[in-house]
Design a protein that fits this description.
This protein is of the alpha/beta class. The protein has a single domain (21-284), classed as Arginase, Chain A (3-Layer(aba) Sandwich). The chain is 29% helix and 17% strand. It contains 7 helices and 8 strands; from the N terminus they run βαβαβαβαββαβαβα. The protein has helices at 43-51, 82-99, 114-124, 155-158, 195-205, 237-250, 269-284; strands at 23-28, 70-72, 103-108, 128-133, 162-168, 184-188, 209-215, 252-259. An 8-stranded parallel sheet has the order 2-1-3-8-7-4-5-6, sandwiched between helices. Helix 4 (155-158) links the parallel strand 4 and strand 5. Helix 2 runs parallel beside helix 3 (114-124), helix 5 runs parallel beside helix 6 and helix 6 runs parallel beside helix 7. The longest helix has 18 residues, at 82-99. Bound molecules: manganese (II) ion. Residues 134-136, 215, 217, 229 line the site of manganese (II) ion.
């Protein structure tokens, strides 16, 4: 089976054949549990619109990554009630993984979406580990009445899979027992400002097969101002790129999600930077290992 192309394709307006894609972009504009700033549901279309402002030649990777083939699907239906949405999302991801060898990039949407994305990857890949880039630990069992809250994004996966967290500078009293415990290794931001050491540590802690989940609030708010729950003191652009490059070139990355872009009226910074991040990661993932 194949997926229907979106009207607006990431980076290029021209639609390629689904079967020719090296990367599949899946917009997931889901927003139900945002607890502070709102607007993540507007993230995916804003990121795709912003992608047209990027140069096709990436000045760092020195490649025209679009030539590898990027196919953007129509957005996932996010109008379902919470209880139905997550099983439906899992089925969609399962179908996607059975239909293509292309590497999926999911664009959110609030971070709880990751709970619906991960199970098919966990089923398929033995010993999958998760690199979790975020300001927040997202390890709550339940938050404001929902297990599918953005504040619980990686808790279910932490019960079965290795999770390595970076950028973390906000941990709640009700989740602190889960950070640096069980399957979770948490690199608190202020304790890990030696980024060369951090890179060595995460490469050692991750298994060979990695899923990368990125909350844009892992970056400093100067880099990503448009996000629901910002925290001061996050990653600067180049420090984060070095870490991502190391992981993308030294591990087998099987899936990526980039979540929590919430456009700010009158400013395009966050969606443009998110689009650049997505294109850059595709560039890192295009090289030979
Ligand atoms: Mn976060």
């Amino acid at each position: 089976m194949s997926f229907k192309p979106a009207e607006n394709q990431f980076i290029l307006r021209k639609t390629i054949n689904f079967k020719d894609a090296a990367f599949v972009v899946v917009p997931v504009p889901y927003e139900k549990t945002t607890s502070y700033g709102q607007g993540t549901k507007y993230g995916p279309p804003a990121v795709i619109d912003a992608s047209y402002q990027l140069e096709l030649w990436d000045e760092e990777t020195k490649t025209e990554t679009w030539k590898k083939g990027i196919f953007t699907t129509q957005p996932v239906n996010c109008a379902l009630p919470e209880k139905k949405f997550f099983p439906a999302l899992e089925r969609t991801v399962e179908k996607l993984l059975s239909s293509t060898k292309a590497l999926p990039f999911f664009i959110g949407g609030e971070h709880s979406v990751t709970q619906g994305l991960l199970p098919p990857f966990i089923k398929r890949h033995k010993n999958l580990s998760i690199l979790h880039f975020d300001a927040h630990a997202d390890l709550r069992v339940i938050f404001e009445g929902s297990k599918h809250s953005h504040a619980c994004a990686v808790y279910p996966a932490s019960l079965t899979n290795k999770i390595v967290q970076v950028g973390i500078r906000s941990v709640g009293a009700d989740e602190r027992q889960f950070h640096n415990a069980g399957n979770v290794t948490t690199h608190l931001m202020h304790e890990n400002l030696d980024f060369k050491k951090l890179e060595r540590d995460i490469l050692r802690e991750l298994t060979d097969t990695v899923y990368l989940t990125i909350d844009v609030d892992g970056f400093d708010p100067a880099v990503m101002p448009g996000t629901g729950t910002p925290q001061p003191g996050g990653f600067q652009w180049h420090d984060a790129m070095k870490l991502f490059k190391a992981v993308c070139t030294k591990k087998r990355v099987v899936g990526v999600d980039v979540m929590e872009t919430a456009p700010v009226s009158g400013s395009h910074i966050t969606e443009l930077n998110t689009a650049k991040l997505v294109y850059r990661l595709m560039g890192y993932l295009s090289g030979d290992k």
